[in-house]
Amino acid sequence: MTDPAVGTLRVNGATLHYEVRGRGPLLLLIPGGTGGAASFDGIADDLAGAYTVATYDPRGMSRSTLDDPEAEQHVAEHAEDAFRLLDRLSPGEPARVFGASSGAIVAVHMLTTRPERVARVVAHEPPLVEVLPDAAEHRALVARVRETFRTQGLMPAMAVLAAGLSKDGGATAPEAGTGLPPRAAARAERTMADLPYFVGRIVPGFMTHAPDLSRLEALSDRLVLACGEDSRGELPHRATAFLAERLGTKLRYFPGGHIGLTTHPAAFGACLQKALCD
């Protein structure tokens, strides 16, 4: 594994930690959940053979600190952070962007708001549940997660969220590090530390975000929507497949499930390489 160049970037209300590897056109990788830049350790070196690969911890996660730790989080502000990184690392040149889960929501928003800065977006299972016909049901899920977190704490709220995302409503919150490759398991402590922020700030702010569908239709030739081979029926997969059908675009399948990036890094990275070039 190559040691990346590490930097910090001051943005509105936060200081971002970012890492850069490789040479070539810029590829910005936006993590989902509580992964941070480290979630891309399994694929970044391979991608750096063809791209300048930039990874970062989103505001409030891991090493990217907030001025106000209690601040509400919004997709537009996270997208502006990503644009600030593009301006620093690739000024004036459109970049390729990959996002996973909540990071994919940010990537899609970037495409619709400043398409001149984005050459291609690959979005893996963005939980854009507002596009679904039963969106009201999922808004109610977000409200239950938030109330459970407030009244019962983190793990009960995680269980409510996991059940709502699953195929049959019967999932429970996973144990950190269970069944993961060693490098991913080693990140479990940091992941657990970020979970309260994710459940309390990211889930409410992101899962109620509605994309600009008319703009996406006009820009669909630059958008690749991808799902996990093993996540059919789960809520993020449903939302992504519905969006692909709505836009009339082909849905790509990547190995593993919603966290295939973590469980199948080599095969996932190979699929991403292909999606960036096709």
UniProtKB/TrEMBL annotation:
Name this protein carries in UniProt: Alpha/beta hydrolase
Source species taxonomy: Bacteria, Bacillati, Actinomycetota, Actinomycetes, Kitasatosporales
GO molecular function terms noted in the UniProt entry: hydrolase activity
Keyword set, alphabetical order: Hydrolase
Native source organism of the sequence: Streptomyces thermogriseus
Domain AB hydrolase-1: 25-149
InterPro entries: AB_hydrolase, AB_hydrolase_1, AB_hydrolase_fold
